[in-house]
Amino acid sequence: MKQYLVSKGSCIKDAMKKIDSLKPKILFVVEEGKLVGALTDGDIRRYLLAGGNVEDAVDLACNKKPKRVARSVEEAVVMLDKNYIAIPVLDEDGKVIDIYTGKRTIVSKKKIDVPIVINAGGKGTRLDPFTKILPKPLIPVGDLPIIEHIMRSYEAYGCKDFHIIVNYKKELIKSYFKETDKEYAIHWADENKPLGTGGGLSLLKNKLKDTFFFICCDSLILADYSDILKSHKKNKNDITMICAKKKVTIPYGVVNTEEGSRFDSIEEKPEYSFLTNTAMYVVEPSVLKDMKKNEKIDFPEFIRLEKEKGKKIGVYTVKEDDWLDMGQMSELEKMRIRLYGE
Q1: Which of 45, 51, 219, 293 gets the most CB atoms within 10 Å of its CB?
Q2: What is the distance between the alpha carbons of residues 147 and 152, in angstroms, rounded to a whole number?
Q3: What integer pLDDT is reported at residue 107 of this predicted model?
């Protein structure tokens, strides 16, 4: 990583030599380890054409507002595309702890190579009016549709076997992938009627032999998938729900009463913490035998029924910032900014 870093006080002439020896050709300018900016040949050329000198410090020429920085390598994997040759990974203090260039899979993470099932059949009514024209999986987040962001995140772990459940505007989704260069296999499962967030799995009975990830097509989890799978296996779960910690602050004074009308106490702007379902799961194929063919059922309800039958249901917790949700318009914009910057 250090070969891509340069101190803000270094001169441009030395930085030019360093860039020339690198591939990709980019440096990240730091001060005491904290990111100051990004520096490319183009940045230097523009600075010199504007009257700058090669003996000047690099912080005068660098781009001090790089559009893409990540908080984890997992996030950088999703961000990287043909327009961005390297993504710096920063810690909570803004220090560079890694640089992802796409040449390697996630550092210290094991490849898992398990089947991935994506429920892409919903109408996405919360994203009206966009989804009147495009199906939710093809709604763009930056340069790519959400479904491709999701698939890229699993590809980084060696996953190449995707089963996609489709219904609403399914021909548009299939057409998109016909035009896309890909190194993975897609198996389509067509719903003839809406089957909820879980019922479409009944179409995959006897088609899945291994533990698989099951996700809805409106959220992206930037966590360690190999660790999630390891936890699922270690605890011998039938289903593992991936949940995110969530904190909500009530912007008012909350009044507690006794016997309905007598004042007891008041809490100013209390903060509540709880776990939320991210709609990402690890599932054992054996549970699919309990799926009734073509029956509409949401997956949380199916989980409840499985628990009543004695199946082991686990929970894996991720940080709130590791869950990017595009289920509604305001969250869609937050996801775009997280992946692409302002």
Answers
A1: 219
A2: 9
A3: 43
For the stretch 95-143, pLDDT in tens is: 898 888 875 444 444 688 899 999 998 887 777 777 788 888 898 887 7
Distance CA 91, CA 72 (A): 8
C-beta of residue 243 within 8 angstroms of C-beta of residue 219: no
Closest CA to 282 of 228, 227, 235: 228
Q: Which helix (H) or strand (E) covers residue 99, if one does?
A: strand 96-100
Q: 313 is written with which tokens?
A: 């249901």
CA distance 17 to 15: 5
**CATH fit for domain 2-100, picks 3.40.1190.20, 3.40.50.150, 3.10.580.10, 1.10.3720.10:** 3.10.580.10
Backbone φ and ψ of 300, nearest 5°: -60, -35
> Which residues, at least 6 apart from 84, have a Cβ–Cβ distance to it below 8 Å?
67, 68
Q: pLDDT tens for residues 178-234? A: 877 677 899 999 999 999 999 999 999 989 999 999 999 888 898 889 999 999 999
- Are 207 and 187 contacting, i.e. CB atoms less than 8 angstroms apart? yes
What amino acid occupies position 288? L
What distance separates the 2 farthest-apart alpha carbons in the chain? 77
Rounded distance between C-alpha atoms, residue 4 and residue 74, angstroms = 19
Name residue 249's amino acid.
T
CATH architecture of 116-340: Alpha-Beta Complex (3.90)
Report the C-alpha gap between 72 and 108 in whole angstroms. 13
> In the structure encoding, which two tokens stand for residue 152, read together?
């890229």
Domain ranges (residues) in the chain: 2-100, 116-340
Residue with tokens 């001090």: 64
Please report which confidence band the pLDDT of residue 94 belongs to, taking 50, 70 and 90 as the band edges: confident
